[in-house]
Design a protein that fits this description.
membrane, globular, oxidoreductase activity, mainly alpha, iron ion binding, Fatty_acid_hydroxylase, Cholesterol 25-hydroxylase like 1, tandem duplicate 2
């Protein structure tokens, strides 16, 4: 009922003018050359990744010195060591340097600068677009993830590196094989085009997607975690993905829980059994 009233207020306010128009005008008039570059989405997502990883990384490093934070640790007896953090950081930098950077340069050389529309999306359009992109990616990755666990050759060849650790942590988010990183990047780039999203909606989706991906792997279940803010168990969140790393044949969807419930692969944290 509250959400319905909120959407009605937004709709009536935006019938004459978008709440996002002043922000969009400022961006396109003051930063036009940067925003039109094919490199901008790459810079946005990569910088967002490292910035958003930092708070969780500090929590891991501080450990028991931050007792109030550690009470939200899903597996308190398992914390990433310096060597595991360095390993994941190394894999991430390697992927960015030898996969993301060459692809970005090729895209910059091949694609012309994008046009910036004069009109901003309505706030409602942005919200619906972001949710639509998350739901589409959720389906795509659920299928990909399920296949890469059920077909052993795919698991060993492409996905096993992500399961080196049974207790997830933020820097493990992009501790991926090259094929998985390219696939995820492809969907993240293509889906807003499929859904015909405004550029502002696309960028908002990319940043939010980076955040919720990190949150899923962070290893902490804070009171403000997305899964606690969204009711009715619709959203999986860090506790569900933590179960996946303990019981790899469960919880394949990256964000929401409906596909796992439909296909019988859903598992709650309360039923998980930590690995010895």
């Amino acid at each position: 009922h509250i959400l319905k009233n909120l959407f009605q207020i937004i709709y009536h306010v935006e019938r004459n003018n978008s709440l996002l128009q002043p922000l969009w005008d400022s961006l396109r008039l003051n930063y036009r050359d940067y925003l039109r570059s094919p490199l901008f989405p790459v810079v946005l997502t990569v910088s967002s990744y490292f910035v958003l990883c930092l708070p969780f990384l500090v929590c891991d490093i501080m450990g028991d010195r931050w007792a109030r934070v550690q009470q939200f640790k899903i597996q308190p007896s398992r914390r990433p060591t310096a060597s595991t953090l360095l390993h994941c950081g190394g894999v991430t930098f390697y992927n960015q340097l030898f996969l993301v950077l060459p692809a970005s340069v090729a895209q910059w050389a091949w694609r012309p600068p994008v046009d910036l529309p004069d009109q901003a999306p309505s706030l409602l359009e942005l919200i619906v677009g972001v949710i639509g992109n998350l739901l589409l990616f959720d389906l795509q990755y659920f299928i990909w993830h399920l296949l890469h666990h059920r077909i052993r050759w795919l698991y060993v060849t492409f996905h096993a590196i992500h399961h080196n650790y049974s207790s997830p942590f933020a820097l493990a988010t992009q501790c991926l094989g090259g094929w998985e990183l390219v696939t995820v990047g492809f969907w993240t780039t293509l889906n807003p085009v499929i859904l015909r999203c405004h550029l502002l909606t696309t960028w908002a989706f990319m940043v939010l997607h980076v955040y919720v991906s990190i949150e899923d792997l962070c290893g902490y279940d804070f009171p403000w975690s997305t899964s606690r803010l969204i009711p009715f168990g619709i959203y999986g969140g860090p506790s569900k993905h933590d179960v996946h790393h303990q019981r790899p044949n469960t919880n394949f969807a990256p964000h929401f829980s409906h596909w796992d419930k439909l296909f019988g692969t859903h598992a709650d944290f309360s039923f998980s059994t930590p690995l010895k």
